[in-house]
Amino acid sequence: MSDHAHPPEHHHHGDAPSTVRPPKQEQEDASTEITEVAPGILRSQLPISMPGLGHVNCYLLEDERGLAVVDPGLPGDESWDALGDRLGRAGFKVADVHTIVVTHSHPDHFGGAIRLRYETDADIVTHETFRTMWQEAELDDEEDSATLDVNSVDDRAAALERYFSRPNPWGGARSGPPPEFLERMRAAGESMGGAFAVPSPTRPLTDGQTIKLARREWVAMHTPGHTYDHLCLLDPEHGVVLTGDHVLPSITPHISGMSPQSDPLAEFFASLIRMEELHDVTIALPAHGHPFEDLGGRARHIIEHHEDRLDIIRDAQEQLPNGTVDDFMRVLFRERSWGEMAESETYAHLEHLRELGELSRSDTGGFAHYAPTG
Ligand SMILES: [Zn+2]
Questions:
Q1: Which of the residue ranges 102-116, 258-272, 290-304 has the most confident prediction, judged by mean pLDDT?
Q2: Residue 256: alpha-carbon gap to chain centroid
Q3: Containing domain of residue 330, as a range?
Q4: Which of 8, 46, 286, 329 is deepest in the core (most CB within 10 A)?
Q5: If you measure from the C-alpha of residue 319 to the centroid of ligand 1, how many angstroms do you get, rounded to a whole number?
Q6: Burial label, 173 (beta-carbon count in 10 A; 0-12, 13-18, 19+)
Q7: What is the CATH number of the domain that holds 49?
Q8: Same domain, yes or no, for 301 and 323?
Q9: Does residue 314 belong to any structural domain of this protein?
Q10: What is the pTM of this model?
């Protein structure tokens, strides 16, 4: 499973080579502490262990009916037990949850939703396009999309196997989930709705639609980039924004070239500009790391980070007049980050330059090559 994490933010210029970096706030272990970050909104943290990430924030939105939870963490007992613990510390129980908001289709955000719905019958709120990469690929293949039953564990395992057996869009083999993962997934069966199942939204939102949670009215903002289905929620009256992974305080979310869209980086820029243009933001509540205030400034910083990377590719054209994704990855990323995620993100940048008309692509020897146009 390679599409869900976040490579460390990398400043290519003027960065002294150092081996000891202070830990990023997104890497901090999940604290058991509950903090009120705005009236009726509590921050709790659930443990995750992913590259660059130590916790996921599960926000608890309180109202007269009980609670909505935002991003209830990974599947599995460890996260489930932590969620029960955090709800208890906040003075609630599992049965109080009436709504589950999932910001996007990565397992550290949706993984806990199935069991939570199984236990509470809570609504599941997502953007209307919510689906995982491998579901998306299946839908592309199927004449009749209704034949894909993601709630069958064997179908799910088979779909994952099919997805990862395809070549990468830039050539070369995909590093799929290890066979043991698929074994475990099949063995987990359907108890609790299936440990690795993907939830089906019961309240899919479109951009601009509103929903009432924590006695506030939230506006749904579709913010494709990190994933196509990414959802942010804005409380315009109080300037509170649930940013998911779209804008994180000190790392940049992974931009995957595996997206079904032709230019996910362009979509990410547009979604960041929407954040920059919000007025009167008082607090941004990210899915990892600490709440922060300067949402617009942070969005601008992330745009500039990617603009810098595009410039690095432009500058590398001379040495790499017909380079592969792997060649450019070695220029963009430090060696410790090399791998499929870095390749995928490099691919997204190269395809963006191709869409801008600056690069042309040819496929030779099973790999995409990029050359300057004109
Ligand atoms: Zn995440």
A1: 290-304
A2: 10
A3: 319-372
A4: 286
A5: 35
A6: exposed
A7: 3.60.15.10
A8: no
A9: no
A10: 0.88
